[in-house]
Write a structure and sequence with these properties.
heterodimer, A: about 170 residues, three-stranded mixed sheet, 9 helices, about 55% helix, about 10% strand, elongated, B: alpha+beta, twelve-stranded antiparallel β-barrel, two-stranded antiparallel sheet, about 20% helix, Tubby_C_CS (chain B), F-box_dom (chain B)
Chain lengths: ~170, ~425
C-alpha cells in the first residue's frame, strides 16, 4: 500500500497523492516528517495544484524506472550557483506529453511556474521556462508586452533611445 | 464538497491505472486554461490577483528565461531578439544587460554600445567592409564575407567620405541613411590633414564613463541598465593615425602608426584592461550652440560650460602612455623572393591598402613576445570594393573601422 501524502491548496481543497508523486517536489520531500502527512500549500490554488499533480504523477511513473536516467540525480550533482538545466527528457513519448501539457495561455503558465518554483520541481520549472523562452524569441518588445501583459515603464525619452537601438538592430544595408 | 469529489476522482483514476492523460478528468477539472472550470471558482483571493502578472516574475526565473533566449540566439539576425527583451520594461532591461556579456567576454556584438567595447583577447571579431563608390559610403558588416542573401548581413556601422576645403572627413554613423552630426546615430569621425598623411579620430562621446561623472544635472552618471540621459554630442580625440611619407616610392604596404589616446599601453600588459563605456549617451537636438564646435586648434571640447575642473582636455584615463599600433613587419619569403604578410586567408587580393597592425612597445614594458606579435587589426581586400576587417582586444569596432577608413583616402605623397 503506497504511502499517501495530503496536499491542501490555498482555497482549502485537499488532495491525496502517493508519496512518489508528491516527492517530485523537493520541498515536500524535505519537509515530510514521519508523523505529519498533511502539507498545507497556502500560496497554491486548487486549479494550479491539480495541474501540478498531473505533471508529477506522469513524471513519477517515468522516473521510477531507471531506463531513462532520472534527472534528479543530475540536478543534485550540479552546483546551485550556475544555471544548469536538468537533462532533456529523453523519452519521446514523455516529451510529447510535456509539449501538450504546456499548451496553456501565459496566465496559466505563470501560475504553474510560480508554484513549481515554490515547490522546487525542477523539471517542471525548466519545462515552463523553456516554453516561455520560445514564446519570446522572434518577438519585438511591444509584442512581448502584449502577450505577457507587461507594462511599459520607460519614459518617453528612453522610449526614443530604445527605438533608435531597435532600428539599428533591424536595419540591413 | 465538489473539490473533494474531484480528489476522489483522481484517486480512482490512479487506482484504475493507465499513464495516459485523461481528457475527461482534464475537462472536468478545468486544468486547461481554455477548458473552464466545472465548478464555480471561489471568491477572488489574493492568489487570483497575482495571476498573470509576468512583470512580477521572480528575478531568478526572469534571469533563467532571458539566459535561455541569449544562448539560443548567438548570431545575427536572431540576436536582435535580445534587444526586444531589453526594451520590454525596466526590469527586463536590467536582467538582459546582466545576461549579455560585453564582446570582450563573449565575442558577440549585441547592442550598439558593443561597437565601442573591446573585442576578445584570444580571437578577433571578423567583419567586412563594402565600399559604395557612387555615394562615397563605406558599410561595416559583421561576418567573414558577404553572404549570398544580402539581408542576412548585419550592418554595424556606416561611413561617408566628405571632402572639405582643407581636409577630408569620414563621418561614422549607426545607419547608412543619416550622416548628420546632429543626429543621434552619429558615432564619430576621422578627419585628415591636407596631405592625407595624418588623421584624427573623434568619438562623439567620452570613450569611457569615468570622464562623464560630474555633479552637473545634464551629466547624470551613465548606468548601463538605464536608458541614458540627454546630452549633446562632443568630439573626443581618441586616436591619431599617421601615414609615413614614402618619398622613395618603394612598393609595399604604407607605414602606418596609430596612437590610441584612449587606450593605455598597460592594457596589453599582463593583467591589464582597457576602460570602455557601458552605455550610450543619446543625443538630443537641443541647443548645440552651448558646446563649441570643433576647430583645428582645439581638438577636444568640454562637455558643457559647467563641467568640473577635470574636463575632457585629454581622454587618457591614467598617466600611462597611449598604446601605439604600427604595421607588422613583413617576412622575406626566400622561395617567392618577396616580402609577405600572412593574412591567414582573410585577405586575397594584393593591394597597397592591406595592412596588419601590432602593438609598438619598448622592452621596458611587461609585455610578452606573444602579445607583441598579436595582430590587433587586420585589413585587406578580397574583391572589388569588398574588404575584410578583423580586430581584437583592446580595439573596439568603432576604432578599428575608423583606422581602416583612413586607408581609403588617396595619399599622393605616400604612393
Amino acid at each position: 500500500m503506497a504511502k499517501m501524502i495530503k496536499l491542501v491548496s490555498g482555497d482549502g481543497a485537499e488532495f491525496e497523492v502517493e508519496e512518489e508523486v508528491a516527492f517530485q517536489s523537493k520541498i515536500i520531500k524535505d519537509i515530510v516528517a514521519d508523523a505529519d502527512d498533511v502539507i498545507p500549500l497556502p500560496t497554491v490554488s486548487s486549479k494550479v495544484l491539480i495541474q501540478v499533480i498531473e505533471y508529477c504523477r506522469k513524471h513519477a511513473a517515468v522516473n521510477s524506472f531507471p531506463l531513462s536516467p532520472s534527472s534528479s540525480a543530475a540536478a543534485a550533482a550540479s552546483s546551485s550557483s550556475s544555471i544548469s538545466y536538468s537533462k532533456p527528457v529523453s523519452d519521446p513519448a514523455l516529451r510529447a506529453w510535456d509539449n501538450e501539457f504546456v499548451k496553456l495561455n501565459n496566465s496559466s503558465l505563470f501560475d504553474i511556474v510560480i508554484a513549481a518554483n515554490y515547490l522546487d520541481i525542477e523539471e517542471l520549472v525548466d519545462l515552463v521556462l523553456e516554453t516561455v523562452a520560445d514564446r519570446i524569441k522572434g518577438k519585438q518588445a511591444q509584442e512581448i508586452r502584449r502577450q505577457f501583459n507587461i507594462e511599459n515603464d520607460f519614459t518617453p525619452e528612453e522610449e526614443e533611445a530604445l527605438r533608435r537601438e531597435n532600428s539599428w538592430a533591424f536595419q540591413n544595408n | 464538497m465538489p473539490l473533494k469529489s474531484l480528489a476522489r476522482e483522481l484517486k480512482e483514476k490512479r487506482d484504475g491505472g493507465g499513464g495516459s492523460m485523461s481528457k475527461r478528468v482534464v475537462r472536468e477539472g478545468g486544468t486547461h486554461g481554455r477548458g473552464g472550470a466545472l465548478h464555480p471558482s471561489p471568491q477572488p483571493t489574493r492568489l487570483e490577483q497575482r495571476q498573470g502578472r509576468w512583470a512580477n516574475l521572480p528575478p531568478e526565473l526572469l534571469l533563467d528565461v532571458i539566459r535561455r533566449v541569449e544562448e539560443s540566439e548567438a548570431s545575427w539576425p536572431a540576436r536582435r531578439n535580445l534587444l526586444g527583451c531589453a526594451a520590454v520594461c525596466r526590469s527586463w532591461r536590467g536582467v538582459t544587460m546582466e545576461v549579455v556579456k560585453p564582446p570582450e567576454q563573449c565575442g558577440r556584438i549585441t547592442f550598439p554600445i558593443s561597437l565601442k567595447q573591446p573585442a576578445p583577447r584570444d580571437h578577433p571579431i571578423q567583419c567586412f567592409i563594402r565600399r559604395v563608390r557612387t555615394t562615397s559610403t563605406f558599410c561595416l558588416y559583421l561576418g567573414l564575407s558577404p553572404s549570398l542573401q544580402v539581408q542576412n548581413d548585419k550592418l554595424l556601422l556606416a561611413a561617408r567620405k566628405i571632402r572639405r576645403a582643407t581636409s577630408i572627413d569620414f563621418v561614422i554613423s549607426l545607419t547608412a541613411d543619416d550622416f548628420s552630426r546632429a543626429s543621434s546615430s552619429y558615432i564619430g569621425k576621422a578627419r585628415s590633414n591636407f596631405l592625407g598623411t595624418k588623421f584624427t579620430v573623434y568619438d562623439s562621446q567620452p570613450p569611457y564613463n569615468a570622464a562623464v561623472s560630474s555633479g552637473n544635472s545634464s551629466n547624470r552618471r551613465i548606468n548601463s541598465k538605464r536608458v541614458s540621459p540627454r546630452v549633446t554630442a562632443g568630439n573626443y580625440n581618441v586616436a591619431t593615425i599617421s601615414y609615413e611619407l614614402n618619398v622613395l616610392r618603394t612598393r609595399g604596404p604604407r607605414r602606418i602608426q596609430c596612437a590610441m589616446n584612449s587606450i593605455p599601453v598597460s592594457s596589453i600588459e599582463e593583467g591589464g584592461s582597457v576602460p570602455a563605456p557601458s552605455g550610450f549617451i543619446h543625443t538630443v537636438n537641443d541647443q548645440p550652440s552651448e558646446v563649441p564646435i570643433l576647430n583645428d586648434k582645439e581638438p577636444v571640447i568640454q562637455f558643457s560650460s559647467t563641467s568640473l575642473a577635470d574636463s575632457c582636455v585629454s581622454v587618457q584615463s591614467s598617466n600611462d602612455a597611449p598604446l601605439v599600433l604600427k604595421n607588422k613587419a613583413p617576412r622575406w619569403h626566400e622561395q617567392l623572393q618577396c616580402w609577405c604578410l600572412n593574412f591567414r586567408g582573410r585577405v586575397t587580393v594584393a593591394s597597397v591598402k592591406n595592412f596588419q597592425l601590432v602593438a609598438a612597445v619598448d622592452s621596458s614594458r611587461n609585455i610578452s613576445l606573444a602579445q607583441q606579435d598579436k595582430v590587433i587589426l587586420q585589413f585587406g581586400k578580397i574583391g572589388k570594393d569588398i574588404f575584410t576587417m578583423d580586430y581584437r582586444y583592446p580595439l573596439s569596432a568603432f576604432q578599428a573601422f575608423a583606422i581602416c577608413l583612413t586607408s581609403f583616402d588617396t595619399k599622393p605623397a605616400c604612393e
